[in-house]
Amino acid sequence: QVRLVESGGGLVQPGGSLRLSCAASGSIFSIKTMGWYRQAPGKQRELVARITGSGSTNYADSVKGRFTISRDNAKNTVYLQMNSLKPEDTAVYYCNVVPFYNSYWGQGTQVTVSS
Length: 115
Fold this sequence. Notes:
With 115 residues, the protein is mainly β. 0% of the residues lie in helices and 46% in strands.
């Protein structure tokens, strides 16, 4: 059974930075494409960044150049470095495989960008 636990969210001012972490259980981690998703109030959940098992990355246009996804397969952990944060980045952030499995959703971590 796969379990994903997100952490690292918080309240930050516009222009600030946060680093999110997602710890995964299960031996499938190193071979799976992992992604960070986010869901803002009243909006659908969206994929903002993905990384393959070999380290290739892809980003949504809204975060390109500001967010960086990375992974440490030895630690079964995927990260999201978020810089130059904007109020519109405010959302609950989740990690999951790509495409997602509904049974893998964790609690997420809240990111609030506000002055």
